[in-house]
């Protein structure tokens, strides 16, 4: 998923278009800040990315390629990039304007994140030592 796609989803969530479909004036600032905010969100989701891709915790590498423009690919599995990230982005974008709505979107982000991780998490099966 591209940064622009995630940004458009976040804009739809926070309803930043007027009745004619044009963006409100503050969207210019939102767009300017979106790549760096997405880098922060990717950092939050990086451990979940490892679960989704079934990468052992001991092999986690924190050196993902940060995004710098709206046309960059988000370095996450599509399930996290499209299913969870837009909620967190919406939350961060409106945090100063409306803390209660930001909190609502952050809760939706956590719910979506947990749903994605639950969908991809695999249990390890094996013998359990009898301690009795």
Principal-axis shape equals: elongated
Q: What is the strand content?
A: under 5%
N- to C-terminal distance: 51 Å
Give the count of structural domains. Answer: 1
Give the helix tally.
5
Mean pLDDT: 88
pLDDT < 50 stretches: none
Q: What summary fits the major beta sheet?
A: none
Number of strands: 0
Radius of gyration (CA) equals: 17 Å
Subunit arrangement of the protein? single chain
Series of H and E elements? HHHHH
Helix content: 55-70%
Secondary structure: elements and pairs:
Elements: H1 3-14, H2 27-52, H3 78-83, H4 85-93, H5 99-120
Helix pairs in contact: 1-4, 2-4, 2-5, 4-5
Can you offer a commentary on this structure?
The protein has 132 residues and is mainly alpha-helical. The protein has one domain (3-14, 32-120). It has 5 helices and no strands. Helix 1 packs across helix 4, helix 2 packs parallel to helix 5 (99-120) and helix 4 packs antiparallel against helix 5. The longest helix is centred in the first third of the chain and has 26 residues, at 27-52. The radius of gyration is 17 Å and the shape is elongated. The relative contact order is 0.18. The mean pLDDT is 88.
């Amino acid at each position: 998923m591209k940064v622009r796609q995630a940004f458009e989803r976040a804009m739809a969530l926070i309803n930043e278009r007027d009745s004619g479909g044009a963006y409100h004036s503050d969207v210019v600032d939102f767009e300017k800040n979106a790549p760096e905010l997405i880098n922060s969100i990717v950092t939050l989701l990086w451990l979940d990315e490892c679960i989704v891709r079934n990468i052992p915790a001991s092999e986690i590498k924190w050196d993902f390629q940060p995004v710098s423009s709206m046309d960059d690919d988000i370095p996450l599995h599509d399930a996290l990039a499209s299913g969870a990230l837009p909620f967190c982005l919406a939350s961060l974008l409106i945090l100063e304007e409306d803390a209660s709505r930001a909190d609502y979107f952050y809760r939706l982000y956590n719910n979506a994140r947990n749903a994605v991780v639950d969908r991809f998490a695999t249990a390890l099966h094996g013998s359990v030592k009898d301690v009795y």
